[in-house]
Amino acid sequence: MAELKLSETRDLTRIERIGAHSHIRGLGLDSVLEPRASSEGMVGQASARKAAGIIVQMVKEGKIAGRAVLLAGQPGTGKTAIAMGMAKSLGQETPFAMLAGSELFSLEMSKTEALMQAFRKAIGVRIKEETEVIEGEVVEIQIDRPAVAGAASKTGRLTLKTTEMETVYDLGAKMIEALGKEKVQSGDVIAIDKASGKITKLGRSFSRSRDYDAMGPQTKFVQCPDGELQKRKEVVHCVTLHEIDVINSRTQGFLALFTGDTGEIRAEVREQIDTKVAEWREEGKAEIVPGVLFIDEVHMLDIECFSFLNRALENEMAPILVVATNRGITTIRGTNYKSPHGIPIDFLDRLLIISTEPYTEEEIRKILDIRCQEEDVEMSEDAKVLLTKIGGDTSLRYAIHLITSAALACQKRKGKVVEMEDISRVYELFWDVKRSTQYLMEYQSQYMFNEIPTGEGDEEEGNAMVS
Length: 467
Known about the structure:
By secondary structure, this protein is of the alpha/beta class. 38% of the residues lie in helices and 22% in strands. The chain contains 16 helices and 17 strands. Strands 5, 6, 7, 8, 9, 10, 11 and 12 form an eight-stranded mixed beta sheet that branches. It has a five-stranded parallel beta sheet with strand order 4-13-14-3-17, with helices on both faces. Strands 1-2 form a two-stranded antiparallel sheet. The termini are far apart.
């Protein structure tokens, strides 16, 4: 019964909520950084994806740090998708921190402190240390269960072997539980950390490669370890500078990482940590991994934030800054001056600018196909053609929103495949921006605080709003 519950909890952790960018798996580039037409959830934006791929490659090789990249384009052209693709391409080892420009103004700390914490989250430290491990192939596991439940704890024996030796270890209740969690069985090659007791399953021994009953398609085969069972191994831990800051700055230590109540961290603490990390680097115990900080809606930052970013990018331990905006020439927040993208000219001068272009009808169709697959919606060819036309006339986001709504309308009429009638029904139920604006202009006199003039000379201005 215990085993059954364990498998249930494991399966539940795999369930993920379908989000706006949950279909993105990477940037969709080949080995020479050329963009594929449709790959890893990415469609179109070939030049923008290629430019992002070059940045990712330089980050991986450690050749770029303290630089800033701007993703600029109209709403719904895939700027956040490209940033998510960059995060997936970088992998788990490289830190990637995301932040929305408006978040800074809703936090309990100062804007510059929030930005500094975001910067430190995007800088990783790879710390190396030696640890003792027991590594070998499992020959036999014997577990002695008490006859009466609760009479005594379980005990057992574990037999491990290498190519040169074989040893029997006595097991306590905790180790038996750990072996059960990892589903370790005879023929597996495992590593046990002596300090923490953590068990890692390395794979299955080649000597058991013909035991077809005990293996699945994902089974990884490894050689039986040679030499002694007990070995010294170099273990690498990856943490961010922000995590080190939090652990050293508050009385509750690392618990603040889980509660999120980090508060403002004093400059002296950061200086001490930077000094210590610099010492570790000189001794060869640690290395710095500059990651990526992505700030969406960067036009929401004010002039103070931009001044801070200008200075922070000159720091020797600065990550790659990727910012995104959908604004044209607009006012810089906190001033009366206008500037491209609402970003000061001196900061714009530091940015490598990647522009995104509106999607073609063919690309909209491919994106809708991917989203239908992601949301597990079966749609007829005619319905997809209609939805593509709606996406071209209104916006891609509106067309994507209609997918799930149409699927629910299809379920209501007990259908299995979404047809044109389902798309038409939800299109009439949920309005897009153009139709909503048109309605407001027709019935503006019945709304409170109406600011659109009703004179004949202002008809052109009204038409411009709709288009």
